[in-house]
Amino acid sequence: MSQSGPRGKPATGIGIGRGPLVEVHSLYRRLGAVEAVAGVSFTQRRGEIAVVLGENGAGKTTLLRLMAGLLRPAAGSVRTGGRRVSQTDPISRAGLAFVGHGASSYDELSVIENVRFAAQLRAVAPDSPRIRETLEQVDLWRFRDRRARELSRGMRQRLELAGALVADPEVILLDEPFNALDSRSRASVDALLAGRKPNAAILIATHEIDHARSIADRVLVLHRGRLQLDATVESLGDRDLREVLDQAAAGDPPHQPAESESGRTAADSTPDRITRRRPGWLRAWRTLVTREFRAELRSREFVPAMVVLGVLMLMVFSLAFAIPPEDAPAAASGAFWASLIFATVLGAVRGFAVERDRGTLQTQLLAPISRSAIFGGKWIVNFVSIALVGGVAAVVTSVFFRIAFAGWMTVLTVLVAAAALASIATLYGALLTNTRAREMLAPVLMLPVTMPVLIGGVAATLDSLSATAVPARLPWLGLVLAYCAILLSLAVLLVDYIFED
Amino acid sequence: MKTDVGPRSQSAGNISLAMKLVLALTLVAVGASVFMTFAYAPEHRVQGNLQRIFYSHISTAGICYIAFIIVAIGGTMYLARRDPKWDRLARAAALLGVVFTTIVLLTGCIWGTGVWGACWTWDPRLTTTLVLWFVYVGYLMLRGYIDEREQKRRIAAIVGIVGAVVVPVNYLSVFWWRNLHPQSTIIVEGRGGLAPEMLQTLIVTFVAFILLFGLLLRLQVRLERLSDAAADLRMAAFAKDGAY
């Protein structure tokens, strides 16, 4: 791999040393009442494949998610290439790949588009030969134009691997990568990992003990979040790994061979280095926005539903109230803004939640890009969606209420208000991804915060309809704009906390 | 097992001397406030005795702002330090903020019925006060919808900080939108400022409410602390029983 990609920022921490590439120190994380990972420490070197074994709930997945930076440790640290992995430090995620249990590729995108998206988020050019090479290695090149949703489970699993490995990561974390793979696919993945092994530290969580033994150099056994065994396969000799696991599950720590990685001397403890590349903020943002629009154009999942909902709301308001002609401007203005706000609250807020449910948010969170780029990508999509709904709703309002509603001043007001509403929807959408009953909670939390937009929007539109001189309307627009600026500033300041897990 | 609550919870049932002093001061201040409101402050020449509700209405409104600013400060400090005590402070302040905002809305309704002939109008100050009430009711509701405790605290902290944006909107609403609700006339000279007895009564009432709020906040924080301690015990028992 080159030290600095043509599209990426300059590489940092280049060079291959002899010390550990991965250092896990006293890692601790509780999930609810359970100590999922409790004081785990170990190191791993380049060129080593280690497997993590343990019964269900032993903490394997949590350990890998902590190492990938998807979870924040309550105590302890993970370092790769000497740099602490942190949710707030995008560079720390460069050179690191994680493949979880579930899908994290986009249904609406084709195989090659998914891999290209993952590559671009890691500063690999979209036309790089790496993309073809990786797809060929996982035997998906011939299916490159097929949509991800049309793939079998095994093919999907290989697609996840391709996305993770396309940027030549040097720390590879795989959670149950052999699930759903037939023997042929498994052999191709084995070959793929063997090819990556000389230049990477590979950690695999698995239940497949026999297969683990055949590929691993080292075995880590977890039990109730604690590391019970850290031994080289060689040092285990002929011992059956099942027996080792049973011993660990019984609470009887198996013998700790002297030649474990953690037991090595301090003389070779200078951390190995990682080649790190990441895209700039604007490039990352453009990649995210392009993907969002492409996916929406294909799935037509959000915008049409929001438009129909907005128009329906207008119909309900128009039908429900017998409005005398002289009150039409006030009623139209109120109905228009109420409809736009409801469409926003029920539609735009779902963006992040859907991504979280489908696992695709993980692709973005794992990439070495700032959280503000992820927020910005969703904001622009929400802004365009809300502005579109506003445009259609303005025309429909003119028809339903028989007034000239859709003037240039209304367009300007809608654009300003769409910016404020997009800020609210994106902010709360990101916040509510992990809550129960979020469809109920979203309106309860968001509607009060949208009220300044409603007040400013209604006043500006009413002024516009009553042909008030332009300068008289500007303070209302200014109010909504200032509100939007405050919300966006807060979002930027809080964005790392918003996406924390 | 790690717990969020330190050893001070052991003495949660005791009331310190300082607390007793604050309690005594609060009682004196509330008594003085009641006396001054009904016996010292003069009757308003237009609104009559109904105007006496003004002292508690204004004071509780001020407390609401303080409560919601504490929610934002508590949230900010929690995000910065990850110390649960800041979350408990924010949670307690939000609860009291909602109670005091309810009092503001109710006293405003009573006053408005006598003066404007309507309990409620969509006046900007009234509207934004109701919006504030909903923001913090939502904040309290949100906490019930998230299971993981650290996540609950983090998300509530962010919602508390963002919700505080409505506080200045509420305060400035009477300046931005001229409507029924009067602008501040307390100390503006030559614009119908308060009579000295009225101003003194307002100050004493405000101090009384500040003390009452401080006392209630202290007690509520202590209650939240005990609640966290109970949750810790439940989690410890759960983990011991084999949560795997």
Q: What can you tell me about this protein's structure?
A:
The complex is a heterodimer of chains A (501) and B (244). Chain A has 501 residues and is of the alpha/beta class. In chain A, 53% of the residues lie in helices and 12% in strands. In chain A, the strands form 2 sheets. A 6-stranded mixed beta sheet of chain A has the order 6-7-8-3-9-10, sandwiched between helices. In chain A, strands 2-1-4-5 form a 4-stranded antiparallel beta sheet, with helices on one face. Chain B has 244 residues and is mainly alpha-helical. Chain B has a domain of 166 residues. Chain B is built from 7 helices and no strands. Chain B is globular. The interface between A and B is large, with 39 and 42 residues.
Any key phrases for this structure?
heterodimer, A: 501 residues, alpha/beta, 6-stranded mixed β-sheet, 10 strands, elongated, disordered N terminus, B: 244 residues, mainly alpha, 72% helix, globular
